[in-house]
């Protein structure tokens, strides 16, 4: 598991203070809370294609449909209006790190299918995370983000998901107990498939093939067939991401994340290690505190003690996929990329005049950049 060094992008304008959140603390001076941040050129009623405009808004989210299929190239879009953001205006910018699909008809079919699929996350969840990140920016909470460098189809199973979740629970418990402040737990999972590459091709023993770009694009086997970008992999990636988040929600709210189970979160590989001993010591101290609370008549059955909030994140890299899962929120009137709660732009795609920054400036998800 890798911890991601990312920072919240300061590219959006601050709104007015909102009512106190569970993370707020009493301070001797007043501060303006960061409750929401949005791009100044992402209007409440953005320009969309004619086909999108005909879609009725349904609560909680309305799917947006582009009249043209998302192209992996940087060719200008017929729907894009210069200077105005649309869900496909990124096509008018220079696109890096995107695959070239040989079968455009199949690509268009896959993207239409993804547009009809339900969102993986909901806009209200992303807004809730945004408010909590505002508290972290003010020093009232701690952001913990971790997960694999890239998810794979071959390693997809419940035990791997559970173990990653357990590690983040452990780290969250240590940080919360030691820092005496809330910990925002964000998993780099349920969508972290695509991999940026330094070179478009790799060579072995005189054989040159396209680089492996992640399981949602092509295969890692070093043969010509596996390295051909396959649009159908996006369908499988969507299904795996949805199934992963479904299990994470069950772990987070079904009792597995209850603080009373803090001693059971230790993983087997730490059983006979210094780190494992230190964690067990802390877990016993938490148990003692919970026992004292119970003896004093303070309930430990409150949802805050038996459940946890858990968020998902990934690098916004494969733009045709991201566009297909972008939805118009009927409550706020803003667009959300519903493939994850939190998205970031990577080192290789953070050009201000590039397609990735163009796409992200119009979605209302909390955003970050990888350093």
Automatic annotation (TrEMBL):
Biased composition regions of type Low complexity, renumbered to the chain:
56-77
Against Pfam families, the record matches this protein to: DAHP_synth_2
Q: Where is there biased composition of kind Polar residues?
A: 1-24
Q: Where is this region: Disordered?
A: 1-83
Q: Which residues are Mn(2+)-binding? A: 149
UniProt: phosphoenolpyruvate binding residues: 188, 347-348
- Where is this protein chiefly located? plastid
Which EC number(s) does the record attach to this protein? 2.5.1.54
Record GO cellular component, one term: chloroplast
What keywords were assigned to this record?
Answer: Amino-acid biosynthesis, Aromatic amino acid biosynthesis, Cadmium, Chloroplast, Cobalt, Manganese, Plastid, Transferase, Transit peptide
**Reaction equation(s) it catalyzes:** D-erythrose 4-phosphate + phosphoenolpyruvate + H2O = 7-phospho-2-dehydro-3-deoxy-D-arabino-heptonate + phosphate
A molecular function (GO) held by this record is:
3-deoxy-7-phosphoheptulonate synthase activity
Q: Which Gene3D superfamilies match?
A: Aldolase class I
- Cofactor(s) recorded in Swiss-Prot or TrEMBL: Mn(2+); Co(2+); Cd(2+)
Q: How is the cofactor bound?
A: Binds 1 divalent cation per subunit. The enzyme is active with manganese, cobalt or cadmium ions.
- Primary enzyme class: transferase
Q: Which domain of life is it from?
A: Eukaryota
What compartments host this protein?
Plastid, Chloroplast
Q: Which GO terms describe its biological process?
A: amino acid biosynthetic process; aromatic amino acid family biosynthetic process; chorismate biosynthetic process
Q: In which pathway does it act?
A: Metabolic intermediate biosynthesis; chorismate biosynthesis; chorismate from D-erythrose 4-phosphate and phosphoenolpyruvate: step 1/7
**Family (UniProt):** Belongs to the class-II DAHP synthase family.
Give the protein's recorded name: Phospho-2-dehydro-3-deoxyheptonate aldolase
Natural source organism: Theobroma cacao (Cacao)
């Amino acid at each position: 598991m890798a911890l991601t060094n990312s920072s919240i992008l300061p590219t959006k304008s601050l709104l007015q203070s909102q009512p106190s959140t569970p993370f707020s603390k009493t301070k001797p001076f007043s501060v303006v809370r960061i409750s929401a941040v949005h791009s100044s050129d992402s209007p409440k009623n953005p320009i969309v294609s004619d086909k999108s405009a005909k879609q009725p808004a349904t609560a909680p989210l309305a799917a947006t449909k582009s009249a043209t299929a998302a192209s992996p190239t940087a060719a200008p879009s017929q729907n894009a209006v210069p200077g105005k953001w649309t869900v496909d205006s990124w096509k008018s910018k220079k696109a890096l790190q995107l695959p070239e699909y040989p079968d455009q008809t199949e690509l268009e079919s896959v993207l239409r299918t993804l547009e009809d699929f339900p969102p993986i996350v909901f806009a209200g969840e992303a807004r809730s995370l945004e408010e909590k990140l505002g508290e972290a920016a003010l020093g009232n909470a701690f952001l913990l983000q971790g997960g694999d460098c890239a998810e794979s189809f071959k390693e997809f199973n419940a035990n791997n998901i559970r173990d990653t979740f357990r590690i983040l629970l452990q780290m969250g418990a240590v940080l919360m107990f030691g820092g005496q402040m809330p910990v925002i737990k964000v998993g780099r999972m349920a969508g972290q498939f695509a991999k940026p590459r330094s070179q478009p091709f790799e060579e072995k023993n005189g054989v040159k093939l396209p680089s492996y770009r992640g399981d949602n694009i092509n295969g890692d086997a070093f043969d010509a067939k596996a390295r051909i970008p396959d649009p159908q992999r996006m369908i499988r990636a969507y299904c795996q991401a949805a199934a992963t988040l479904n299990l994470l929600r069950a772990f987070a709210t079904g009792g597995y994340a209850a603080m009373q189970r803090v001693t059971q979160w230790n993983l087997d590989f730490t059983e006979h290690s210094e780190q494992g001993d230190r964690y067990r010591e802390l877990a016993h101290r938490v148990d003692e505190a919970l026992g004292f609370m119970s003896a004093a008549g303070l309930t430990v059955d409150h949802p805050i003690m038996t459940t946890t909030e858990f968020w998902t994140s990934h690098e916004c890299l494969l733009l045709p996929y991201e566009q297909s899962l972008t939805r118009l929120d009927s409550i706020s009137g803003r667009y959300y990329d519903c493939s994850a709660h939190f998205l970031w732009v990577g080192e290789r795609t953070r050009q201000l005049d590039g397609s990735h920054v163009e796409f992200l400036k119009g979605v209302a998800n909390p955003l970050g950049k990888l350093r």
